[in-house]
């Protein structure tokens, strides 16, 4: 039977468990043996107990559990060739030569690096007699399939990533809670949400909760004097009888000179210039937690199934696929192309080409 490994890597995202469950059960139904690699790439490097054969019951009840039960980690050794050599040895010893990786762009880049190096790693392991010549012959190729698990929705070539909808919903619930107290005391709140490089959560939360102003990395506020522009908006809304002011700021928000815009600074501006009683709330890790929304369970399940199919139809000479979703259809496209496009956003921002950054992220919001 074909042996497939599945792992989760990078920041946890609600729905990762549903993805693992789908890979395990659909893989089994297709006659494969499925192994969960615990603790992300660290588990690949450590091997042993971290690589566990799964059966139908292993993933029972996982649809509704947040986070990732097989664990995730940031793994420095996997960024080194030595670490990846050890990982390759562990995989060969387990007889696994197909990996489904659910993570962000860093994790998927790592997976593709691993695959492109694989031939060389196998040769080296054979030369050092860490694997037999027969094993080297049997495991000449590594198949990689990527699933995007990220609350940030920061990957190109796919409309939405696993976990983003749940996280957005958590943020909306928190902002709703803040709204009631803000209204009661006629206060202003500056709410910091996750998104170091991507403003999707902040922007969508702003739309979904009717925030007064939103700060995101891809599209800094226009003009040199965003402080005055923001105060004018907040003041105008107050003049119209609004009893609360809510500003949503992404962790990675910047101005047009690429200087960070921090929640504390926004608070001071609102306090000093408008005399508003202003508080800062950093939503923090509540944004990652809890049970996945129905959409993330469905997205992870349909994409997990597609990932197994992608393994089964893979060939050594086609690029590693990334499973995405576009216009409600599950898609499969070149993984590294998606990663490169994602990196282009960061490049556009660093070159202050904000129109390009928004265009790459979502043409719908480019204007
Ligand atoms: P998030 O969106 O949550 O940041 P991510 O997958 O981008 O998720 P990273 O911390 O960038 O998170 O990567 C996770 C792990 O993937 C790293 O700790 C490392 O083990 C591996 N990895 C990342 N980049 C590479 C690379 N270029 N080569 C090899 N391994 C890598």
Task: Give a structural overview.
The protein is an alpha/beta fold and about 375 residues long. The protein is about 45% helix and about 15% strand. The protein contains twelve helices and eleven strands. The protein has a seven-stranded mixed sheet with strand order 3-2-1-4-5-10-11, sandwiched between helices. A four-stranded parallel sheet has the order 7-8-6-9, sandwiched between helices. Strand 1, helix 1 (about 15-30) and strand 2 (about 35) form a beta-alpha-beta unit. Helix 1 (about 15-30) packs across helix 10 (about 295-310). The longest helix has 23 residues, at about 105-125. The mean pLDDT is about 95. The structure holds adenosine-5'-triphosphate. The site of adenosine-5'-triphosphate (ATP) has 18 residues, from helix 4.
């Amino acid at each position: 039977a074909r042996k497939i490994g599945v792992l989760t890597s990078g920041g946890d995202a609600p729905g990762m468990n549903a993805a693992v469950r789908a890979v395990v059960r659909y893989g089994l139904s297709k006659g494969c043996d499925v192994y969960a690699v615990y603790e992300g790439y660290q588990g690949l490097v450590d091997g042993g107990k971290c690589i566990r054969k799964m059966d139908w019951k292993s993933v029972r009840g996982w649809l509704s559990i947040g986070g990732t039960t097989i664990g995730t980690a940031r793994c420095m050794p996997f960024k080194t060739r030595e670490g990846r050599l050890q990982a390759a040895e562990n995989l060969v010893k387990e007889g696994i030569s197909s990996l489904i990786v659910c993570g962000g762009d860093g994790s998927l880049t790592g997976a593709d690096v691993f695959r492109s190096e694989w031939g060389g790693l196998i040769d080296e392991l054979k030369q050092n007699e860490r694997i037999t010549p027969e094993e080297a012959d049997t495991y000449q190729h590594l198949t990689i399939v990527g699933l995007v698990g990220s609350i940030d929705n920061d990957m190109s070539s796919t409309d939405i990533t696993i976990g983003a909808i749940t996280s957005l919903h958590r943020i909306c619930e928190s902002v709703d809670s803040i709204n009631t107290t803000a209204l009661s005391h006629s206060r202003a709140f500056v709410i910091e949400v996750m998104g170091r490089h991507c403003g999707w959560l902040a922007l969508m939360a702003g739309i979904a909760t009717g925030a007064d102003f939103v700060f995101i990395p891809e599209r800094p506020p226009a003009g040199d004097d965003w402080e005055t522009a923001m105060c004018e908006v907040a003041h105008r809304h107050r003049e119209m009888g609004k009893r609360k002011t809510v500003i949503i700021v992404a962790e990675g928000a910047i101005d047009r000179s690429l200087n960070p815009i921090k929640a504390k600074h926004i608070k001071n501006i609102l306090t000093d210039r408008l005399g508003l009683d202003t508080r800062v709330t950093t939503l923090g890790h509540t944004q990652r937690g809890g049970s996945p929304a129905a959409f993330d369970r469905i997205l992870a399940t349909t994409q997990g199934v597609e990932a197994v199919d992608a393994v089964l139809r893979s060939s050594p000479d086609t690029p590693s696929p990334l499973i995405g979703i576009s216009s409600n259809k599950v898609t499969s496209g070149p993984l590294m192309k998606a990663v490169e496009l994602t990196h282009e956003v960061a490049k556009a921002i660093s070159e202050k080409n904000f129109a390009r950054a928004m265009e790459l992220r979502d043409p719908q919001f480019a204007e």
